[in-house]
């Protein structure tokens, strides 16, 4: 066989080529050389493990054709035969590289039930988590070859949340072994070839709006294109837990489905400050279990109002009972939340906006206790809806539940307050200002 020159990897690409963890994500900035590294690694694995099966996946057929099939045809030439019908490269040693795409959930059916030794998901942040979960199930075989999934990613996209959770934040769920996950960061500055040959591309990235530039040029994962709550910042909007003072009013808001119970407990200081002080995010609970758990979490506190979605008050066809009645039997008596979407999200934005704290300092009306980690990670991951930029996208579905609960609270509380609005008595205002000043002097609240 003729020797072929595939190119020289840069330092980060070399790290990626050598990585042997089960799940390796390579990503960050645009143009770092990720797709090149995918093709290079796939070819090397095909030659190294005789008879292995490799899958390279992209979101659409067009992207697959441009990014992988065409360059692979050029690189492999007579080393592997290509079947366009099957989108498959077959090597003389029996190895195969299959090129696939997955734009919709039904595209996944083509790969389920198949066995692969190595799977590459190029632009994994363009796919939802179920694609990754399903492909994990295809990573198997009895040939003794290692089994690995390699992902590449840029911040942003429908899969931003789960890629960030696993590879950047490293917040693992039960059954996920941290040792299996490795992240290798790629920056445009790593790809010297592109910088030399296409300086215009670098200029184009540098001229992007600042948030996109931070995401695509520097590989920053906290901001991304299409983010709904761009103003959200962990530093500003989260605080250390403290004991809720007696005179604060407490509220609950929740979203319920068998797929997820998402409940928030919110305290109001009576002067425009809100604190999310507890959260519950649990799948697979029937109503009685959900109600029991919510009761246990509430720990006998006095709750002014519990906001639940209006559809809980519709009668179920089979039993004639409403979900709200079932919750009430379990001790959770809620009122109908105002669940209008756009006004609800705007009400959340108002809560995140900095306001005068009464002592001349600007702080947001809403703060989230640092131990409410689900809300803190899901709220900034929400994306704008493609068709209606004022609304939040329904995808990825799993990050919407706890944010919906916050939306129910934000709008329902606002509407109630509007009705009851009274002017604050000047003496109370002076007292509040003095209290805020004193509290700042003691550097925050008393912690648990
Ligand atoms: N080691 C290398 N040797 C030769 N060319 C390379 C090398 N690495 C990357 N390139 C070239 O640099 C360009 C950008 O690389 P690539 O498409 O892999 O970047 P990317 O990180 O996948 O970009 P994007 O974020 O836009 O998907 C391509 O033309 C690619 O062929
Ligand atoms: Mg690429």
Any descriptors?
448 residues, alpha/beta, Rossmann fold, Nucleotidyltransferase, domain 5, 2 domains, 8-stranded mixed beta sheet, 7-stranded mixed beta sheet, 34% helix, binds adenosine-5'-triphosphate, binds magnesium ion
Q: What is the first-to-last residue Cα distance?
A: 69 Å
Overall morphology: elongated
Please report the first level of CATH classification, the CATH class of the largest domain.
Answer: Alpha Beta
Q: Regions with pLDDT < 50 over 5+ consecutive residues?
A: 435-448
Strand content: 15-25%
Chain-averaged pLDDT? 88
Largest sheet: 8 strands, mixed
* SSE class: alpha/beta
* Global Rg: 26 Å
CATH topology of the largest domain: Nucleotidyltransferase, domain 5
State the strand order across the main sheet.
3-4-5-2-6-7-1-8
- How many distinct helices? 15
Enumerate the distinct ligands: adenosine-5'-triphosphate, magnesium ion
**Count of β-strands:** 17
> Residue share in helices?
25-40%
Number of separate domains: 2
